[in-house]
Amino acid sequence: MTGLMPEVSLRKPETVDLPFLVHLMKDPDVAAGIPGSAYLQNSGDFQEFIRAIRQKEESGSELHFSVCLPDGEPVGMCALHDLDVRAGRARIGYWIGKRWWGRGYGKSAVSALVEMAFQNLGIKELVAESSGSNVRSARLLASLGFREAEADGAAARGMRVFHLVANKGKGDNTVYKP
After folding, report:
1. Which of 149, 108, 137 is nearest to 7 (CA)?
2. Considering the entire predicted model, what is its pTM?
3. How far apart are CA 6 and CA 110, in angstroms?
4. 36, 66, 108, 121: which sits with the fewest CB atoms below 10 Å from its CB?
5. In what order do the strands lie in the sheet with 63-68?
6. Are 67 and 75 in contact (CB under 8 A)?
7. What residue ranges define each of the domains in the chain, with the CATH number in brackets?
8. What is the pLDDT of residue 50?
């Protein structure tokens, strides 16, 4: 357990996760926060989704994880998108099943993802988007040190954009300290 956050683990999505993913995506409150989720309606769609994830991971542009409780039960997913290790940048995405909202699992997952990106991959800047109406997501990001930033067209798309920069050393103006 990290501080007061509940313990979660991140693992690669597996075909055993398909029934869980299909069930959660049928919840309109969960699906509303996930871009492109409208096409994910059945196991076949999710099998294609997992194949696409694996292709993007093989190309090095993305890393996806199932968010799991200590007993292995999946509660959501998180990812690094637009991963550019050379430039030191990535975009994060995450979602947690409605049944687990408000319990700290999202914060634990995003915290683990941030730590992995900064400490293991050498990422220096992370970007996250949140629906303008998703107050919980904005609060989660702010609690981990993300700062809201202006972004071209984000407001027009109904989105809020957040940035987090790795701490490079004493005296700089960066915000993340593991």
Report:
1. 108
2. 0.83
3. 12
4. 36
5. 9-11, 63-68, 74-84, 89-96, 125-131, 159-165, 147-149
6. yes
7. 9-165 (3.40.630.30)
8. 75
